[in-house]
Amino acid sequence: MRAFRNNVTRLALSIVMTIGKGICALIEGKGLGGKKIHRVNVSLTNKQAFKLNRLANACNMKPTALAGMLIDLSLNNVELVDRLQQEYCTQTSYRVVLVNNGGGELVYLLNGREDG
């Protein structure tokens, strides 16, 4: 029973994070190397959950990993970010500008300045 609890505890402390194109890395407890993991909870409608599950099955992925990948792709899509800001951004001082850093990664600048 004690071994079972230890395994459950280890499993509970482990976080599976999807990196890039479905490559999974196991991060345990404090072995994060100074990186912070931010959890975001999303409430899906039945139709959205059905579509996500159907696509995850088609891609041989778990729905959570696919959702993380979709968020990553969306946040790195200049056209989508611009479209969202055109539709929903009410304060121009909070508008973000996406700049390519030369390494293939987009950097989010607030009002044309880098915030570190």
Secondary structure layout:
Elements: H1 2-13, E1 14-19, E2 23-28, H2 46-58, H3 63-75, H4 78-88, E3 96-100, E4 106-110
Helix pairs in contact: 2-3
Structural overview:
The protein has 116 residues and is an alpha+beta fold. The protein has a domain at 77-116. It contains 4 helices and 4 strands; from the N terminus they run H-E-E-H-H-H-E-E. The longest helix is centred in the middle third of the chain and has 13 residues, at 46-58.
The strands making up the biggest β-sheet line up spatially as: 1-2
Radius of gyration (Å): 18 Å
Query: Regarding quaternary structure, how should these chains be classified?
Result: single chain
Class of secondary structure makeup? alpha+beta
The total count of strands amounts to: 4
N-to-C order of helices and strands: HEEHHHEE
Percent helix, as a range, is 40-55%
Strand content: 15-25%
Report the uncertain regions. 4-30
Task: Report the biggest beta sheet as strand number plus sense, adding barrel if it closes.
Answer: 2 strands, antiparallel
The general outline is globular
Mean pLDDT: 75
How far the N terminus sits from the C terminus, by CA atoms, comes to 48 Å
